[in-house]
Amino acid sequence: MRTKAALAVAVAVAVALCAAGATAAAQPELSGSVGYQMHYGFLSGTVDWDRLQLRLDLDGWLGQVLGYHASVMAYASLLPQPAVGLALGEAYIDGSLGPVDFRAGSIVVRWGVADGINPTNVVNPASSGTSPAAALDVAGAARKPVPGVEVTYYSDDGMSALTGVLVLGFVPGQLDGEFAEAAETAPGMPERFPEGVEFALRGETMLGGYNVYASYFRGRQDLPAAWMEGDELKLQYRRMHHFGLAVAGSIGGAAVWTEGGLDLPDRLPQLEPGASDVAPMSSNRPRLQLVAGAEYTFDVGRGLFTSVQAIYDSAGALVSPYGEPGEAGKAGLYAMVVGRYSLADDHDLQLVALADVLNRSVLAMPTYSWTMAPAVELSVTVVAGYAPGGLSAVDTMPGGAAMAGAAGVTAGIKASF
Predict the structure, then answer these.
(1) What three-state secondary structure class fits 406?
(2) Can you give the pLDDT at residue 10?
(3) For residue 119, what pLDDT is reported?
(4) Is it the case that residue 357 has pLDDT exceeding 80?
(5) Three-state secondary structure call for residue 177
(6) Which one, of 84, 26, 88, lies nearest residue 57 by Cα?
(7) String of b and e for 306-319 (b: at least 16 CB within 10 Å)?
(8) pTM value?
(9) What's the confidence (pLDDT) of residue 1?
(10) What are residue 303's DSSP bridge partners?
(11) Of residues 7, 223, 234, 239, the one with CA closest to residue 128
């Protein structure tokens, strides 16, 4: 933990020094946004959360080699209880030396070719908790920065590259409710350097007109393994090997892709079948996740963008990372559809739907947005779930409690500068 804090401070100081030393011809650029959101829950029948957020980004260059970036977010909310906070986002120094690009600091490594759900994107943990609404964020669920160094070497012809990432301190994923409370004392969390060190490698090249990426990661799972001992929830962080493969290209006017990831977690005796007085909610079995999809823009009106994906998850954990206590996880098959259409100037519609094919449940998220002034956007999003028997029956499906809890209307306004 000290490693992460020290690195974040060092990068922030370095960025400040870079900004202070920038010449008049290369002054730093300050940008950001301010926004407010509130959510009305269908099941609660009330406004159950709100959030006011300010984001500031500082970017600049020193000469033609060294650049810097720093992001900070301040937020305040009244519901479900009053809270204020300040969070450091990415803060790094990067540059290029011939065929080598490098970045060091508090970084987000963005890997994957699929639309939003990326089995190979495992270096950074998701910051959106265990809600399935994160699975519908096709812009890519927000990721927590990790302290580390990323270096990429490009071949002379520019057709191939090799990237190495060294993570200097483990950052856990976001947990909610009782899981968040139990995680505070969960074993397996490294407390000193170098116990939290992780690393990842990715090679990329072109084969037959397609981009091909192969990756490997050795580190800890973002979310801890879980089991029940009697009435007590137990959690433990564990390490894993992760292998990834992704391919992307085009067929005619459509972009196509396929992406897969295989998790091989370290085994825990509490998760073995037959363990006495233990009801596992996680598994020692490998987890395979595969995504295949395509996107195409139809020449209709102002242009209709469509994206369709099929997703296979051997653990059935796409909607909820934890199963029911004592029940073995079953493979899941999902379909994800995204559509975007411009009604008129400054008026846009988007629909995202995620269907659990085997359990016949659906989570849909239509959004209407209006650019009411330059850089000012008003949006309204509805999250609705369905299962045989109606919305209340969603709670009986695997991961359904989280789906039902996400159902509601979110209204927000955001101004960028």
Answers:
(1) helix
(2) 46
(3) 95
(4) yes
(5) helix
(6) 88
(7) bbebebbbbbbbbb
(8) 0.87
(9) 44
(10) none
(11) 223
What does the block give as tokens for 229?
């001992």
Angle at 88 between CA 109 and CA 200, to 5 degrees: 20
Cβ neighbours, 10 Å, residue 120: 26
CB count within 10 Å of CB 24 equals: 5
Task: Identify residue 294 by its one-letter amino acid code.
Answer: A
Amino acid symbol at 367: T
Whether the pLDDT of residue 14 is over 60: the answer is no
What's residue 277's pLDDT?
83
Q: The tokens of 378 are what?
A: 């008003």
Give the number of other Cβ atoms within 10 Å of residue 117's Cβ: 25
In this structure, the number of other CB atoms found within 10 A of the CB of residue 321 comes to 21
Query: Cα torsion for 382, 388, 393, 394, to the nearest 10°?
Result: -50
Question: How many angstroms separate the Cα of 373 from the Cα of each of 285, 342, 345, 369, 378?
Answer: 52, 16, 12, 12, 9
As a whole number of angstroms, the distance between CA 56 and CA 12 comes to 14
pLDDT score for 9: 45
- CA angle centred on 210, ends 209 and 216, rounded to 5°: 145
Looking at residue 390, its pLDDT comes to: 58
Q: In this structure, what token pair is assigned to residue 260?
A: 């897969």
Decide if 316 contacts 400 (C-beta within 8 A).
Answer: no
Question: Bridge-partner residues for 198, per DSSP?
Answer: 167
Q: Which amino acid is at 85?
A: G
Q: What is the DSSP string of 134-148?
A: GGG-TT---B--EEE
Structure tokens at 94: 């990067």
Number of H helices, E strands in the chain: 3, 21
Residue type, 114: A
337 in Cβ contact with 364 (< 8 Å): no
Q: Amino acid letter at 178? A: E
Cβ–Cβ < 8 Å for 3, 101: no
Residue 180 has pLDDT above 90, yes or no: no
In eight-state DSSP terms, residue 270 is: G
- Residue 202 to residues 7, 219, 394: CA-CA distances in angstroms? 24, 15, 39
Q: Alpha-carbon distance 46 to 42, whole Å?
A: 8
